[in-house]
Amino acid sequence: MPMTATTTESTDDRARRDGFIDARGRREFSVVALSSLLFSITTTHSTLVAVALGHVGYSLQTIGVLISAVGVTALAATLGSGFVAARLGAVGAFRLAMALAAIGVASLAVTRDMFWPALVSRLVWGAGVGLFLGPVNLYIQSRINKARFVYLVTAFSSTIPLALAVAPPVGEWVMNHFGETALFIEGGVPAALALLITIGIRPLPPPPRPAGLGIAAAWRGWHPLPVATLVLGGAQFGYVASYLAPELREQGITLGWFFIPMTIVMIGCRVGAMRRLSALHPRTLAASGLITGGLSLAAASAASLAGPWMVVLAGALLGYGNSMMFPIMSAWLGRWANPAEGPGVQAIVSTAFYFGIYWTPSPIAGVIELGGFRGAEWLLALSGVVLGVWLIVSRVDGGSDKSRAA
Q: What average pLDDT does range 367-380 have in this prediction?
């Protein structure tokens, strides 16, 4: 028994030196990171929804409505995730998110050819997406100590974009060989597995009293440019997630040409390059992300002329641009309010970014009908460059003088 106690103590000490609260916390971090990757593989099947619904025979506008419907419940669930976590605990909240995502994606196997049932499936899918991020981040941060806090949080955030290297090419292969029904059944399986592997992890106790969102207080004094930056950054990624697949399929180019380099660059930026890039002002990083995202879409518009290697370039550019969006803006804008308003600030950040991802596909469908995929890509590309330059020139900041700060 004394030997066992000594061994356990030594294992816990090593885990603490590595940045975890104890040895079991290390295992729980790994389990939840894997479950986050699996959950993200399920939700990243959104890249193939437009193709699958197009095979059913829906018009482009109807497809846009079904794609954007996710945003309704995703935003509502994001805003309410704190209340759910306060009542179910963080573990209960993200398990509920996993269940909803699995049901929402898999149910499209039988609902996709009927508009209203398909709409319900998409709304359930969105609720899972919106409910996941806040509670899972809360749990992950509770498993680590200050020794390597920033590195481990950043490393964990890479599990979500890593799914982009898996879901689109695998899902495309399944759909091509077995059809849309198999695609959506296969898509729901990872989230169901994610739910199962979290059985046995220690829960976090709910807070003694649910806190308010503080959105109104956090909104006061904000400059509109950060919100516009998040919306447009989300729209750039939302376009890729919603409409790039049918465009590339028309040209005979597989999705892996785009999403694999995108994922490699995104993870490289978040885990490696960010150590040097963090010396730059977050405003500059966010602006560079918008501009690079715009250049990515401009490159994608030339893929039919230059071939797959232009798609590789487009993916790499968006990988950098997207890595400069949500994590950078979340950390930067967290300084715009006092600590009591932190939940409200993060709610605004998440809502603006999700609005761009999930609600812009509907109006973009109209742009595609008028000017084709190239027209939509150039509109988003020019918007990204213009807004990125404007953000730098404005020198807006969250310091003591929010209208003139450095």
A: 93
pTM attached to this predicted model:
0.77
Whether residue 228 is found in the same domain as residue 159: no
The residues pairing with 20 across neighbouring beta strands, listed in sequence order, are 144
The residue type at 143? R
User: In total, how many domains does the chain have?
Assistant: 2
Amino acid type, 164? L
Q: Please give the pLDDT value at position 343.
A: 55
Confidence grade of residue 8 (pLDDT, cut at 50, 70, 90): very low
Q: What mean pLDDT is predicted for residues 128-148? A: 85
| Closest to 28 (Cα-Cα) out of 162, 158, 267, 204 | 204
Within a domain: residue 211? no
Spatial distance between the Cα atoms of 165 and 161, rounded to a whole number of angstroms: 8
57 and 142 share one domain: yes
Sort 11 into a burial class: Cβ within 10 Å, 0-12 / 13-18 / 19+. middle
pLDDT of residue 87: 83
Determine the average pLDDT of the residues in 294-315. Answer: 91
**Domain residue limits at 149:** 20-199
Crossing angle of helices 49-56 and 60-111, in 10° steps, is: 90
**Burial of 302 per CB tally in 10 Å (0-12, 13-18, 19+):** middle
The β-bridge partners of 144 are 20
Residues 163 and 70 in one domain: yes
CA-closest candidate to residue 82, choices 248, 214, 182: 214
Q: Average pLDDT of the chain?
A: 84
CATH classification of the domain holding 91: 1.20.1250.20
230 and 191 in a single domain? The answer is: no
Distance, in Å, from the CA atom of 69 to the CA atom of 54, rounded to the nearest integer, reads 16
Together in a domain, 259 and 155: no
Q: How far is CA 96 from CA 132, 158, 273, in A?
A: 8, 22, 34
